[in-house]
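Aim 2 progress. For UDP-N-acetylenolpyruvoylglucosamine reductase, the working sequence is reproduced below.
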Amino acid sequence: MLTIESYVSLKPYNTFGLDVNTRYWVEINQEDDLQTLLQLTEFVNTPKLILGGGSNVLLRQHFNGLVVKMNIQGIDVIREDDTHIYVKVGAGVIWHDLVKFCVNQGYAGLENLSLIPGTVGAAPMQNIGAYGVEIEQVFESLTAIDVASGKQRIFNHADCAFGYRESVFKRKLKDQYIITSVTFQLDKTPTFHTRYGAIQETLTEMGISDDTLTIKAISDAVIHIRQSKLPDPNEIGNAGSFFKNPEIPKPQFDLLKSTYPTLPGYPISDDIVKVPAGWLIEQTGWKGYRLGDAGVHTKQALVLVNYGNATGDEILTLAHQVQKSVYDKFNIEITPEVNVV
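Predicted structure tokens for this construct:
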């Protein structure tokens, strides 16, 4: 049953803790409810904002439209073969709850993505990733509802046009579909990814050797790293990594490396190198910077924070200043990973 409310505060529903309202609000618990909603003539032309965990959005002002909060639940094994388990998950399931379920069941592939905030429905939109793994590596398909027609469509891997923190839902099909479930292809025999970031070092500190390595150990290591570096949104408003890590031509990286020997780089191909945006921001002096209640986190320069009463515009202004400094110093453009509304 649909219950549409008016003038609802979004402060509890965005991890920046920004105090803005929406004109209309509705929570969706099953796909049929969403299809019914999209057929209501009074809301056909109303701007819509789809919210999961609100962990990757920067709200600049009150939203004069309809916020659709996706709460569809369910984690179901739908089939398996000799090497894979296929798990269909509702869009409203908390991402880390899914990771914990899979780790506990011995389904491999999501362990490096432990403790990422947000919900499952947002994961393929952003092609979320961390510590050497991205969603597209374990993605099988998703179901989504066409906003214009209300009809269901199945998207396979190729349909989603995944890129670095990108998908067709952020570009060609932006705002045209609402994801209701995602199916993951997980491994019965794990392939361990331990070379990215501090995973191997953390595993060693935990007393884990190659002989005792498990997906649970990797998940525990990732959780430890994230908790030590990233602020808890329940304690200080933030949306995790605010910027994408830029990918630059190798000749540009080599030239910068000759000037800045400690510059980290991760080869994407023979011609492209990914550079940590957090390192670039820290080198420009922004780490720990605070202007009013908007700031750059003291432990991780990639994270912008709300110390209490910052507005979305104040955080965005700070982001623009950080971008300009990085470009002026390194001739590298860093772009937001967070969606600005």
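The two ends are 28 Å apart (CA to CA). This observation will guide construct design in the next reporting period.
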